[in-house]
Specification:
The protein is mainly β. Helices cover 10% and strands 36% of the residues. It has five helices and 38 strands. The strands form eight sheets. Strands 27-26-14-20-21-29-28 form a seven-stranded antiparallel beta sheet. Strands 15, 16, 17, 18, 19, 22 and 23 form a seven-stranded mixed beta sheet that branches. A six-stranded antiparallel beta sheet has the order 2-1-11-10-7-8, with no helix packed on it. A hairpin with a 6-residue loop joins strand 26 and strand 27. The two termini are 54 Å apart. The C terminus is likely disordered. Keywords: Membrane, Transmembrane, Transmembrane helix. This is FHA domain-containing protein.
Length: 566
């Protein structure tokens, strides 16, 4: 009975995809193209696999010839090697052959699943070299003599000759060797038993991960030095969540707080509304705030339509994120476009007067406001509240509202929110790596950058009372590998430091496929532990971009404990 092949199998042995296994539908592809171009079936990293050409070559299934394959070199710059021998133009190959793309380039093994019986590798016969002879057993013979017609054979009395002594010595050597062999064998049994008993401690618990696609299943092999970014993503995708939120600033009376605007008549007769600001101290400016019911013209101190990332840290539904996501009023405010240039009120001899100097854009934190109206505040009379905060899991359309007020750090960009679900959640693994962190270590960032294209799902309603079709945005996580680029240390309170950063305690990352919306996402180490919380980025016009993460130790402090995983 002929074997029915389901999939091509490409086992990557070296290169950027080392320890990964890719499988492709056997019926769908008559040929597998490979190279660095995105159009190839088997794609290699454009940067790290530099020995590979854009359209390096292909594996072609010969029509009419079952299980016959030809490897074709598309005139690549560095050539193709099959089982370490370079081919010229093309060459036949079979399952199990190793293919290398260029001298020193990536190596992969070509195979089929299931492999046909007629293509199974034959059993190797191990030959014994002629110089090695079979072991001979040596024995001692008794020397006897027959005495005439006597019924008994009486041995002759002989002395210990040279040959007899040699035979006796050989026998003793054999006894000694046998004792040594038995001793070594016993020791091996003891060591094997100990190794089996402690196998979990001696062997890292890294297992193969299966990733299922529509028409194929890929098996990701464990990397030699930790996990690959693909393995980390497969393990944590369901634990990284999309957060949508909005907030407003409110008074203790419950009324909304507005930024006052003043009508100004221009020289051409038009009247425009200008935002008003107040100088609370020399060089310090704040928006002029008032209650909604008392402000004739103004705009609310509020924000909507913002998004960020978070990750599950407890089975009970606690989610870690940034403070500027969970309690955005404690971070810099995004003024509307018409807020600048504004009108400045300064304290003069006759009270508050309009300054000739217009107010240009500046930074202001609503939660740290010192004045309300034209008077300094006494006590806390304003606060921020989230108008909504919804949590959505990856590739899911159901929004889960956050419950209660967020728990925020008073000094770091870290916060905790909570959602209520009927089921228990699987949290990410957390590890305080501050003592072992080093520049150059590999990291993986996961999150929902706003610049990434949105994904939407259209569904018909199954609700009898509402038959309208729904178009819902579905989050799809982005995975970004990178490295620790620099370690920034802030100055400890009450201590002098010869070397510190005014920026604060951060890990500077080399992970550029991130941006607004990634805030609050996890930063994983090579073992799949979350060691940081993505927080901020900065860029210049020359396209230089740097990103930053908060050490996870500040999140652990917020959880009321210092460490979760050693």
């Amino acid at each position: 009975m002929a074997t029915l092949v389901n999939r091509y199998v490409i086992r990557h042995l070296t290169g950027s995809k080392a320890n990964q296994v890719e499988e492709f539908d056997y019926k769908k592809y008559n040929e597998l193209t490979f190279g660095r171009a995105a159009t190839n079936v088997v794609r290699f990293d454009p940067e790290r696999d530099s020995a590979v050409s854009r359209e390096h070559g292909k594996i072609v299934r010969e029509p009419g010839k079952p299980f016959s394959f030809t490897l074709v070199d598309n005139n690549s710059r560095n050539g193709i090697f099959v089982n370490k021998s370079r081919i010229a133009g093309s060459a036949p190959i079979q399952p199990g052959d190793e293919i290398q793309l260029g001298q020193g380039g990536p190596v992969f093994q070509f195979d089929l699943n299931p492999r046909p019986a007629e293509l199974m590798m034959s059993t190797r016969v191990v030959d014994i070299p002629v110089s090695i002879q079979p072991t001979k057993e040596m024995s001692l013979a008794e020397t006897v003599a027959a005495s005439g017609d006597n019924d008994m054979a009486i041995p002759h009395k002989v002395g210990l000759g040279k040959q007899t002594v040699e035979r006796m010595m050989m026998t003793e050597r054999r006894k000694t060797s046998k004792s040594m062999v038995l001793g070594v064998a016993g020791l091996l049994v003891i060591v094997s038993g100990l190794a089996y008993a402690f196998k979990d401690e001696l062997k890292p618990k890294i297992q193969r991960i299966e990733v299922h696609h529509h028409d194929s299943t890929r098996i990701i092999e464990p990397a030699k030095d930790g996990l690959t970014a693909e393995q980390i993503a497969a393990e944590n995708t369901s634990k990284v969540v999309f957060i949508e939120f909005g907030y407003k600033l409110v008074h203790t009376t419950g009324d909304d707080i507005y930024h006052e605007y003043m009508p100004i008549k221009l020289s051409d007769g038009r009247v425009v509304n200008k935002a008003v600001y107040i100088e609370t101290a020399p060089g310090k400016i704040e928006p002029l705030l008032g209650l909604k019911r008392n402000v004739a013209v103004g705009k609310p101190i509020a924000m909507a339509g913002a998004s960020g990332t978070g990750f599950v840290v407890s089975p009970q539904g606690h989610i870690m994120t940034n403070r500027h996501v969970a309690a955005a009023w404690n971070s810099y405010y995004s003024f509307p476009q018409d807020a600048f240039p504004g009108i400045l009120l300064v304290q003069g001899a006759k009270g508050w007067e309009i300054s000739d100097q217009p107010v240009q854009e500046f930074r202001w934190v609503p939660g740290e406001t010192q004045f309300f109206g034209k008077k300094p505040m006494s006590g806390k009379i304003i606060d921020g509240v989230n108008t909504y905060m919804d949590v959505t899991f990856n590739k899911n359309e159901q929004r889960f509202p956050a419950q209660g007020k967020p728990v925020v750090s008073p000094k770091h960009d870290v916060a905790l929110i909570k959602i209520d679900l009927a089921e228990s959640l699987a949290p990410v693994k957390l590890r305080d790596a501050d003592k072992t962190i080093a520049v150059g270590q590999p990291i993986t960032v996961m999150g929902y950058p706003g610049i990434s294209p949105d994904v939407f799902v259209g569904e018909y309603s199954g609700d009898f009372a509402n038959r309208n079709a729904q178009i819902v945005k579905v989050p799809d996580v982005t995975v970004t590998p990178g490295n620790i680029g620099k370690i920034l240390r802030g100055q400890s309170a009450g201590k002098a430091a010869a070397y510190y950063s005014e920026f604060g305690d951060y890990y500077q990352l080399t992970a550029n496929a991130t941006g607004s919306g990634n805030s609050g996402g996890p930063v994983f180490d090579k073992d799949g532990n979350a060691i940081g919380i993505f927080s901020a980025s900065t860029s210049r016009e020359d396209a230089t971009r740097i990103t930053f993460a908060i050490p996870i130790k500040y999140g652990l402090e917020l959880m009321g404990r210092r460490q979760v995983v050693e």
